[in-house]
Amino acid sequence: MKKKWLAALMTAAIAVAALAGCGASNKQDSKAEVKNDSKTFVIGVDDTFPPMGFRNKKNQIVGFDIDMAREAAKRMNLKFKVQAINWDTKEMELKNDKIDAIWNGLSITDERKKAMDFTKPYLENDQVIVVKKDSGIKTKADLAGKTVGCQKGSSAEDALMDDAVGKKIKGGQATEFDENVSAFEDLNAGRIDAMVVDSVVARYYIAKHKSDFKVLGESLSPEQYGVAVKKGNTQMCDAIQRALDDMKKDGTAAKISKKWFGQDIIYNWTAK
């Protein structure tokens, strides 16, 4: 997610943030306001990533993360703007100050933490394998020699390359897609045999489309979602974290979760 302004504020504060995220302590002022010359909080998203962020029938970008970010912007006393970006170049969008944050089901990884700063995790997730119900594929071992798809630049791609899955498809082929919807379409048409995708996306898509897909029981790469900002932009990161803390405390985050998932699946970062 986005890397923004205040590189001069690094040193000791960044060292602490590296260990515990960029969340403000409970002793700090709970107000989430942040100084921003543009007065607008711009988040970058993949607009084909339901239910986190996607376009509805009116071509508006909606989703769980959109609702969360909009509420956070309100608490930071900033206007809100959603900007669709190329997910494969998300780090560059952040680095070049084209966006203030990446808030779109972004998995926190050690590699990504080198390029951007993260809030504390707000959702847990894992990567799963989706196949057609009549495919005969029941385990990762059955992927040997198969064609497996994933979104380019995603955690699914990392899981596919690094997990045992990557070894199991030896003799097969890994196929990259610009977005997950195209991968689902190719899976449905039989152009690929399986795909690796975030579990929250897979289950939402399958339920929404009443499709003939199923999720294999073996999951990959347990992970957590966080909001990312430009490396060194401690002020923005802390403001977002304060907003998230307040949203969790007053039940707003749970309400948004129930709207999109039917239950409260917000990660309890305050207990960690």
From TrEMBL:
<dbReference type="GO" id="GO:0015276">
    <property type="term" value="F:ligand-gated monoatomic ion channel activity"/>
</dbReference>
<protein>
    <submittedName>
        <fullName>ABC transporter, substrate-binding protein, family 3</fullName>
    </submittedName>
</protein>
<dbReference type="Pfam" id="PF00497">
    <property type="entry name" value="SBP_bac_3"/>
</dbReference>
<keyword id="KW-0732">Signal</keyword>
<dbReference type="InterPro" id="IPR018313">
    <property type="entry name" value="SBP_3_CS"/>
</dbReference>
<dbReference type="GO" id="GO:0016020">
    <property type="term" value="C:membrane"/>
</dbReference>
<dbReference type="GO" id="GO:0030313">
    <property type="term" value="C:cell envelope"/>
</dbReference>
<comment type="similarity">
    <text>Belongs to the bacterial solute-binding protein 3 family.</text>
</comment>
<dbReference type="InterPro" id="IPR001320">
    <property type="entry name" value="Iontro_rcpt_C"/>
</dbReference>
<feature type="signal peptide">
    <location>
        <begin position="1"/>
        <end position="20"/>
    </location>
</feature>
<feature type="domain" description="Ionotropic glutamate receptor C-terminal">
    <location>
        <begin position="40"/>
        <end position="263"/>
    </location>
</feature>
<dbReference type="InterPro" id="IPR001638">
    <property type="entry name" value="Solute-binding_3/MltF_N"/>
</dbReference>
<feature type="domain" description="Solute-binding protein family 3/N-terminal">
    <location>
        <begin position="40"/>
        <end position="264"/>
    </location>
</feature>
